[in-house]
Amino acid sequence: MSGAVAVNSRESIERSWTKWMPVLAWALIIFGFSTSYFSAENTSKIIDPILRFLMPGASAVTIALGHGFVRKAAHFTNYAILFWLLVSGPMRARPYRAFGICVIYALLDEGHQMFVPNRGPSLYDVALDSTGALFSRFLHAAVIEIA
After folding, report:
1. What integer pLDDT is reported at residue 17 of this predicted model?
2. Cα dist. 55→15, 63, 71, 110 in Å?
């Protein structure tokens, strides 16, 4: 009898770990975006030419604003995805706890940027991250919970 309990317990742990894998993978991706490789200086080398191609007559100011918008939209989107992964997996019945995890991770992520060259922490970015998670909460409620 105890052998069956051990097998069930191990399977339960494996299922739990499987639910957390997408969340952990996405958290690592977000962490990667917090490195100096994704500083504004470096992302401008990719984003600015794309914006110039899409808006050939745009001024330098417009391109700079567009670059900033793309970077801030990435904050919003990354945490919307993180929330969705949490409530679709390990935090299925706990959306408020999932939102709290997103806010805490956003704070930790910005704190990490204090130690990264060419990066700096911003409470504004934490607010954007949290807003993305909150939007995802509303979207999740509308699509999954109401349907």
Report:
1. 83
2. 48, 8, 17, 32
Give the confidence band of 4 by pLDDT, cuts at 50, 70, 90.
Answer: low
The DSSP result for 20-74, as a single string, is HHHHHHHHHHHHHHTSGGGSHHHHHHHHHHHHHHHSTT--HHHHHHHHHHHHHHH
Q: How far apart are the first and last CA of the chain?
A: 42
Cα angle at 110 between 108 and 115, to 5 degrees? 95
State the Cα–Cα distance between residues 88 and 108, nearest whole angstrom. Answer: 23
Measure CA 142 to chain center: 20
